[in-house]
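Today's session is about reading a structure prediction critically. Students often jump straight to the picture, but the first step is always the sequence itself: look for stretches that repeat, for charged clusters, for runs of hydrophobic residues. Only then move on to the predicted structure, which in these notes is written as discrete structure tokens rather than atom positions. Here is the chain we will use throughout the hour.
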Amino acid sequence: MDKQNPAEHSAIDNILPTSNEDEMKKLMQNLDREQAYREHKCWRQYITVIVSIIFVAFQLYATLSGAITAQILRASHLAFVQFLAFLLFPATKKLPKDTLPLYDVILGLTGAGCWMYIVINFQQLVRRSGNNTTLDVIIGIIGILILFESCRRIVGLPIMIIAGTFVIYAFVGKYLPGFLHHRGYSLQRVVCHLFYNTEGIMGTPIGACSTFIFLFILFGALLEKTGIGQFFIDLCNAIAGGASGGPAKVAVLSSALLGTVSGSSVSNTVGSGSFTIPMMKRLGYKGEFAGAVEAAASTGGQLMPPIMGAAAFLMAESLGMPYITIVKAAIIPAILYFTGIFITVHLEAKKLGLKGMPKDKLPRFLPLFLSKGYMILPLVVIIWFLCAGKTAVYAALMGIVACLVIGIVVSIVDLAKGRKPTFGSKDLIDVMCAAARNIISVAIACGMAGIIIGVVTLTGLGLKLGAGLVALAGGKLFLTLIFTMLASIILGMGAPTTANYLITSTITAGAIIQLGVQPLAAHMFAFYFGIIADVTPPVALAAIAGAAIAKARPMKTAFNATKLAIGAFIIPYMFVYNSQMLMIDASIGRILFIIATALIGMFGISVALEGYGFNFTGLLHGTNKPVALKTTFDVVERVLFAIAGLLCVIPETRSDIIGLSMIAILIAYQLITKRILLTKKQ
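Below is the predicted structure for this chain, in token form.
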């Protein structure tokens, strides 16, 4: 949840139920490992602060000067991360968070020392590459094992088990039959390949993490300190709070906006859900539906450009594409995803007759935007420079500068008016500590992904897995997509966004690419289904978080969230079969036509899911008395709406014409039958 300025008050505080901050914090710690960190006091706090400040300063120096070679930067980055990991995160969630056991100090120093061994002995290691000493191997083994332990604590068991399985495969593959067989590798070869080579732990993922991902996380920490989360919620209340089912629409809009700076579905759910879910329940939504709306929308925040939970940066690096290309490709699918949820929420509100929040209690858009609209300027700055063709590093740096300038200017204005400064030196230290803490899980996930990638490159397993999956599907693209979808959902269960993308893209995307699919579409396909695991039973962490806030049944909430997120199960198939939906080789006119027809298609799909379309109001025949009839649909009509919606979402002219015609005919049929019904009531 975004940290708010104590002096800042929302315009809707008087109508929102008071949330128990301690309860929300406990919920986040239980469901989101990244939030279960120690809160040190006394001398331990000073150590954490000092190390965090040095870490941030080192990263900024490395970025601005360019004087540090890639391997030394990556090893130094991992040294800081390993030390802070054991300083901040206990061995289990149940252990007290106000102590620091000696064994964690030893593990932290040892883990950092293993990576500093590379920094100190870099030249010697380069000279004896391929002929490493026994000490090199021992250091590598210890470093890898400590990385596994930090992964268990912070990122979770799924990626640790997967990476461990890959390491075991590197040793036992020579005993396996069929396509899994390889010639076998010695302990020295495997350890040195994973620990010292840039195709292992210090590979592309850590390279991205130690450069622009860190800068964007620092940027996100600065944004949080400005209170942008509350501003987004207030802004969405001003836009949609007074409409039918207002709080649910606010949940959808605010989660989409928060997704631009949030890297966690669970944190997003708890952060905005602590406001929106109680409000939805008060206005008549069932707890399971209220929790599902927030979970589905918050999970979709990871699919929303420009940041996409840091996955956009890794995707750009993995595919060798400009960052802005990834952002552009994600726009139409993200719009369709949130439109589907928004329409479903609207139809549910209309079906239940739910009203919005009192408009006199809501903030007014123009005064709010004029008074606090400056908060979005850093985001505008980043998007501006990315569109201008600048690198992600440059755009992130300019965004950080914009945040600092705004913070300073606002603080000067506060001082001039005799108020406490909004942004001071303590806030800057808090930002540095938050950035250093937030990068830990991302860096560890990147390191574990490096192990997986290292084994894949060493053994050639990537092509073998892809070939195996294609062979299982009989070479059929649709069946391969089905298998890839299921594998991505399973692999993505319980994994943070960054780890999620790294796992799913490494293991499953190659199979689709082998069948001639655009690499960007293949990676996006795997990413979408990995992310949607956060609302898909049985794990569904975001849905469980929403259910806990709503005091609803977790699995029913998860099934509702899956229904609301139906777009995420359909859209990836569409852009695999026609990459124009990702703005690949498509004209502006074609893109606008795809968006328009796909939005109508999402309406058709939402109508099919809800079994309801709109209220028809007419005059009773022979009288002037207005009568309202609800257009509820039977099974056949719902199936027809679903088919029509799918045809419209498919980005092809022929299917669009058929789908639009079907929707028009179905609506006309409803209007005619309702008018006849009114006539019969005379």
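Discussion point for the tutorial: The mean pLDDT is 84.
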